[in-house]
Amino acid sequence: MNTKPITIAKYWRWFFYAAATYNFVIGGAGLANAAAPVNDRIVGLLVLGFGIVYAFVGRDPARFGPVLWAGIIGKLGIVGLLLPDVIAGKAAAGTGYILAGDALFTLGFFAFLLRKG
Description:
The chain has 5 helices and no strands. The protein is an all-alpha fold. It has one domain (10-114). The chain is globular and about 45 Å long. It comes from Sphingorhabdus pulchriflava.
């Protein structure tokens, strides 16, 4: 029986803290925009909430890492829903950059979840 503890490379912790910070900034900005429609502010709140999840993963990746599947679904969903408007030039300025960030974090989440050992 192998009782060796699971070790997670330190850079993964920093990666998840970066994802949390990213979501805090993007979600917080959306939530704080009093001029935005309530649906947009709700999205900001949900993005902020996912930031809390990523902070938990950063604190203990071995324990909380599996919840990243929800983050993958959420980030891919946002990219899938908003990318057509970005391509058509109908999205708000900067949306393409936000989607690029979401796509990069999604790739990192996949890399973490599919890693060996």
